[in-house]
Design brief:
Two copies of one chain form a homodimer.
Chain A: H1 15-35, H2 41-48, H3 52-58, H4 62-84, H5 90-105, H6 111-120, H7 127-146, H8 156-173, H9 180-191
Helix pairs in contact in A: 1-2, 1-4, 4-5, 4-7, 5-7, 5-8, 5-9, 6-7, 7-8, 8-9
Chain A binds a DNA duplex through helix 1, helix 2 and helix 3.
DNA sequence: GAACTATACTGAGGGAGTCTCAGTTTGGAT
DNA sequence: ATCCAAACTGAGACTCCCTCAGTATAGTTC
């Protein structure tokens, strides 16, 4: 329930600023992948070759750093949804998109929790991107429902709960056993309509 | 992938030790409920009226404190499964038990993550209790499958993934909107057999 | 190319939390 | 009354978070 406009990190105008911004982002991605979203910021700054104050200058909160590190991937997801919306098989389209989404949500430990929060908390850097995703996912769901392939009472919110749950389970089992594909398949089979048109 | 026998906290023999052990446990339950599993241990010790060293004497790791704080609830769950095993309606029994389990898994923020780890990591204080739960849940699942009410290819491991996912989603939405009952219902409807005997 | 200034960088330092251990106290047995 | 294993204490070393006063510099202007 944070309030006020969240800080969205912007690539700086000065050359040295851009250089450091990029270095921090690269170090952050590596660190998040290794240690999860709670990776040490001091460590990230050191690996980027900057002082801790510089990291905070560009990314005033951990959430803003996570947002910047995952921005592109989420944008991809939205773009992919728009492409899939034209598919002749809406259930296949929905399935494919959800698989992609789950994969992205579990890029590193802790991400899905942050995104789930962002979904409902406007005072969060990732909120805007999450909203866009929500919308494009809802479109795919509606199409599959209109084609009679998915139970009509499923809401977009529920779809995202299922999605997040699947991503969380996958995240838990990283990096060894990979429980997710099966989980998502179960969920998908669970929400398809019981009596397909003969 | 921790190794060695995990430390399971035991109620001490000396009277002062027992007093403090109980006080710490009570303070911990309150703190976990309020702040999640990452609640400050110094704070818990202070509220229990003991020095930090005393807390560490009884509970050498955070996981051992969580284990002790949730031990009874998990034992209840196992007992309930044994009672439900005698039910004439195995699907109803499974449903009721899963609902109970989800409620318990989301007693406080962070618990379901700890339990999910414990399920597969033997070097964890909660591993023994999780194993017992796994077994009793698997029994209920088998019964429902034998009665032809649940898809026969669902494994106990998958059941627990679904369970944990539901608990995690519920935990995320605490304390305001409560997304879980619906989530679990969707999952349950998803795993019941498609063509019930006529 | 010198002066200027907004932008950017630095790192010491205060705060919070974790965990350990050398020294001290005490419950309960003999 | 004595004893000692069990239990308690809290200072201190460590890690991490985050801020801010002081310093440096990229890029613009003349």
């Amino acid at each position: 329930m944070t309030t006020g406009t969240p800080h969205i990190a912007q690539r700086p105008k000065r050359a040295d600023g851009r250089r450091n911004y990029d270095a921090i982002l690269a170090a952050a991605r590596t660190a998040f992948e290794a240690d999860g979203s709670e990776a040490s910021l001091e460590n990230i700054a050191a690996r980027a070759g900057v002082a801790i104050g510089t990291l905070y200058r560009h990314f005033p909160t951990r959430a803003s750093l996570v947002e910047a590190a995952t921005r592109d991937g989420l944008a991809d997801l939205v773009a992919r949804a728009e492409r899939l919306a034209a598919s002749p098989d809406p259930l296949e389209a929905l399935s494919e998109w959800m698989e992609q989404a789950v994969r992205h949500f579990s890029t590193f430990r802790g991400l899905v929790g942050i995104l789930a929060q962002s979904m409902y908390d406007e005072g969060t850097p990732s909120h805007a991107m999450c909203n866009a995703m929500h919308r494009s996912g809802a479109d795919l769901l509606r199409a599959a429902q209109a084609a009679g392939r998915v139970r009509p009472d499923l809401t977009p919110g529920e779809l995202f709960d299922l999605l997040s749950g699947a991503a969380w389970v996958r995240e838990q089992s990283l990096p060894d056993r990979d429980g997710s594909p099966r989980f998502l398949r179960l969920v998908l089979e669970g929400i398809t309509t019981r009596n397909p048109e003969p």
